[in-house]
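Design request, tokens follow.
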């Protein structure tokens, strides 16, 4: 059993797991970003705070969102007046 555990900790398998985790996190953030809308009874401040968490997540994973894209997404997320 020790040999199996040692094999799992080799740099290549660790790198592969790290890449898989990163990809999964990016996929989750993409889903949240694509369906992002303002919730009922949510303030604009709270909506922007929630949106910032998503975009900061992209940035921390090395996949930053352009400011123009952020503005368009926030405007799109606002409810019709």
């Amino acid at each position: 059993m020790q040999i199996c555990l040692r094999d799992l900790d080799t740099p290549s398998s660790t790198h592969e797991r790290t890449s898989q985790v990163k990809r999964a996190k990016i996929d989750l953030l993409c889903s949240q970003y694509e369906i992002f809308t303002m919730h009922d009874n949510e303030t604009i401040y709270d909506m922007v705070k929630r949106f910032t968490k998503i975009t900061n997540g992209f940035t921390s994973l090395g996949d930053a969102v352009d400011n123009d894209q952020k503005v368009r997404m926030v405007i799109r997320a606002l409810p019709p007046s």
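Comment from the thread starter after seeing the answer: thanks! The CA atoms of residues 58 and 64 lie 5 Å apart.
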